[in-house]
Specification:
By secondary structure, the chain is of the alpha+beta class. The chain has a domain at about 10-50. It has one helix and three strands. It has a three-stranded antiparallel sheet with strand order 1-2-3, with helices on one face. The longest helix has 13 residues, at about 10-25.
Length: about 70
């Protein structure tokens, strides 16, 4: 059985939240506690929107030894 660490955030979610925070000055960004398919919740006054973040990891080996 796999156990997910609910106390640490995914790197992709943090990066997206940071960028949104830079662009949207008058909004608040929240991380939901329960995993319901919404990774970030953005609110502005009484309006809100849920966002699901998908991340792609790619690694480039610059010092490759053959």
């Amino acid at each position: 059985m796999t156990i997910k660490n609910f106390w640490s955030l995914e790197p992709g979610e943090c990066i997206v939240a940071e960028e949104l925070n830079k662009k949207l000055n008058d909004c608040q960004i929240f991380f939901p506690l329960h995993d319901t398919g919404t990774d970030l919740l953005i609110t502005k006054g009484k309006k809100h929107i849920g966002i699901q973040v998908k991340e792609l990891r790619s690694y480039k080996n610059r010092n490759r030894i053959n």
